[in-house]
């Protein structure tokens, strides 16, 4: 195995271990910390901070520390969030959410830079076209990284599946789930299912933290630093804070990017609904917190498979038709999810069914077509 491929595999498995923890933890925030909306607030802080950090931090940090140590430091930011969940409060989750948000943008930028530079250097070495090798490296990365959506959620469901005294819900209880959670005080439910014990929560947080520490150690020990001279030969000098800030908004002169912004925002809103309201009001309320992982596994698996399928269909239909169909499909499934909980006392199958359809429709907009459009522009 050549050193370039070895480094790509190290980054891929490092990210897999890291997001096995963070991905599973993100899906549980609204259910584990529902008091006063703490879980949802922490997620909002993460992505608000990420927006700000992505504008200024990546280029400066990568230039100063290099890709390898930027990845290591950013991964440590994720560990702080897991540690904050051991004793969740406004004074622990919000500060650690800020730290995670600050580290997220440099992490992804350093990963992309490393894969791109490594791909181009290997292409020069073997006399191949650089973009072909870079595309191959990104394909390897996402093939391995996407599996984290399965492992993290599976661990959560297996751990919380040990919860005793699972309640049997009646029709009156289900009226407080789904759309009913916005209109009915959940304290009036005739049966209140007990959440996971502190022992199970600590066990899950311990597993997640260990996974993140393993990711950091993997990168520190096995990832080679890209030669500074090689990397700098492909980079421009770091711009000043003012020029970087202005350059970000100068991109808005391109009307194509302006038209993509609403679609990107919609994709983010849909992801936020899935990670917060859907998991809390539909899955946890109707099935229990131990089912959140299983439902998200269905979403992740369908998302990945549909990405491949839609990529093939696009060759025959074009973007416009698939964009329209995916949006109509997604909205119809959100509506069906609400109906399912109003008409069924055993909502397991409808929830799994609709989650698969949500993953199918979202994958094309967010994963396949939307990202290719941003790269093209």
TrEMBL record:
Pfam families in UniProt: UNC-93 (PF05978)
Subcellular compartments: Membrane
Transmembrane segment boundaries: 7-25, 37-57, 69-88, 94-117, 137-160, 200-223, 287-310
Coiled-coil zones: none
Membrane topology field: Multi-pass membrane protein
Signal peptide: none
Keyword Cytoplasm in annotation: no
Superkingdom, natural source: Eukaryota
Keywords from the named record: Membrane, Transmembrane, Transmembrane helix
Similarity section: Belongs to the unc-93 family.
Designated name of the protein: Protein unc-93 homolog A
